[in-house]
TrEMBL record:
GO terms for molecular function: CoA-transferase activity. Keywords: Transferase. It comes from Rhodospira trueperi. Signal peptide: none annotated. The keyword Hydrolase does not apply. Gene3D superfamilies: Crotonobetainyl-coa:carnitine coa-transferase, domain 1, formyl-coa transferase, domain 3. This is Succinyl-CoA:(S)-malate CoA-transferase subunit A/succinyl-CoA:(S)-malate CoA-transferase subunit B.
Length: 401
């Protein structure tokens, strides 16, 4: 018998995704997994530049695009042309959310700013993601994740103490963090619109999501002027707390954030002398080189998996420093279903990171990978706006779609 998919919490919500690259599209990807209908609006002929960012597929779109455009419908529409802007306003009138990440002022020049869209839909929620936000002296500057990491204070912290600042990982962390803050903002704004009938703007700067996660740095500087610097693999707040090499050339992470944890570590190391010599965090921080050196010597006597097992048996926080190959082979990743295969039109199955968060009653799911450019243009304009085939043909001939 046919089965019916369980309802999802955002069923009935329609989102116009006019954003490019990662932050805004990541917001809409997350919301789409939980039921929102996401209509991705792209430039005719070219599409989102993210289609060509990363590893290309036989279809021409990148694997990164297939992942972050999951569960979306692709409509081509030239917003720079009056006819394209007019169609976008009509779509906005039938949607609950618009997402964009152009430089501030761009949408306004096209007649698609907040006042323009609010006029056709007072309950509309508009997510605006940019490098520096919609106002302030730097609002007009271009911004990407690497710039946000630097400006927001994170890059200064990444690297070895005696080396240059480095990118905190090769992923576009600021984009993904901003996308999550965007999803939270959209959900709160939708709740407010539901209660009052009034929409609002969500204004997110990429650097702000980075700045928000710098733990105590802001209050500490305001309190005593401390400027934290690069701490390498360790941290100035705990010891041992870092990455340690193993006999097989792999690495582990060990985090002893309390005296109790260090006592457990010295027990599995069979180094009661270390505990006697460095019983408190302050003692260990005063001679980090000796403590870290002892742990490194110990981890270097065993392969990585054995170190992890010994520490786990002794209730010491320890984990492998995994590569993506390690993650694919890990039984816990498999048991949690952290990866899934979905169909990509014209390509077949592709492996993608699975849905987060996990909801017990109304779980999200991925219906398809990112679509071919313009795959849904005719269906959306016909079904949603009632634009007849002849008019669509004229729009296509004029380069509007």
């Amino acid at each position: 018998m046919p089965t019916t998919a369980p309802p999802r919490p955002l069923d009935g919500i329609r989102i116009l995704d006019a954003a490019t690259f990662i932050a805004g599209p990541f917001t809409t990807a997350v919301l789409g997994e939980f039921g929102a209908e996401v209509i991705k609006v792209e430039q005719p002929g070219a599409g989102d530049p993210f289609r060509r960012f990363g590893t290309p597929t036989a279809r021409g779109d990148s694997l990164a695009f297939l992942s972050e455009a999951r569960d979306k419908r692709s409509v081509t529409l030239d917003l720079r042309q009056p006819a394209g802007a007019r169609i976008f306003r009509k779509l906005a009138a039938k949607s609950q959310v618009v997402c964009e990440n152009f430089r501030p002022g761009t949408m306004e020049r096209w007649g698609l700013g907040w006042s323009d869209l609010r006029a056709v839909n007072p309950a509309l929620v508009m997510l605006r993601v940019s490098g520096y936000g919609q106002d302030g002296p730097y609002a007009g500057r271009p911004g990407f994740a690497r710039i946000a990491h630097a400006f927001g204070g994170l890059t200064h912290l990444a690297g070895m103490p005696d080396g240059p600042p480095v990118t905190p990982g090769s992923t576009s962390l600021a984009d993904y963090m901003s996308g999550l803050f965007g999803a939270v903002g959209v959900l709160m704004a939708l709740r407010h619109a539901e209660q009052t009938g009034e929409g609002q703007v969500i204004d997110i700067a990429l650097y702000e999501s980075v700045f928000r996660v710098l733990d105590e740095m802001a209050p500490r500087y305001a309190h005593d002027g401390t400027v934290r610097g690069r701490e390498g693999a360790g941290t100035l707040n705990a010891c041992p707390h870092g990455h340690f090499p193993c006999a097989d050339g792999a690495w582990v992470a060990i985090a002893c954030t309390s005296d109790k944890m260090f006592a457990r570590l010295t027990e599995v190391m069979d180094r009661a002398d270390l505990l006697a010599r460095f019983p408190t965090t302050a003692d260990r921080l005063a001679d980090r080189a000796t403590v870290d050196g002892a742990v490194e010597t110990w981890t270097g006597t065993m392969p990585r998996d054995e170190v992890v097992q010994v520490c786990t048996d002794g209730h010491v926080p320890c984990g492998p420093v995994n590569t993506i190959a390690d993650l694919f082979a890990d039984p816990h990743i498999a048991a949690r279903g952290n990866m899934t295969q979905v169909l990509a039109e014209g390509l077949g199955p592709v492996t993608l990171p699975n849905v987060l968060p996990r909801l017990s009653a109304t779980p999200g799911h991925i219906d398809r990978a990112g679509p071919p450019l313009g795959a849904d243009t005719d269906a959306v304009l016909s079904d949603l706006l009632g634009i007849p085939e002849a008019e669509r043909a004229t729009l296509r001939a004029d380069g509007v779609i």
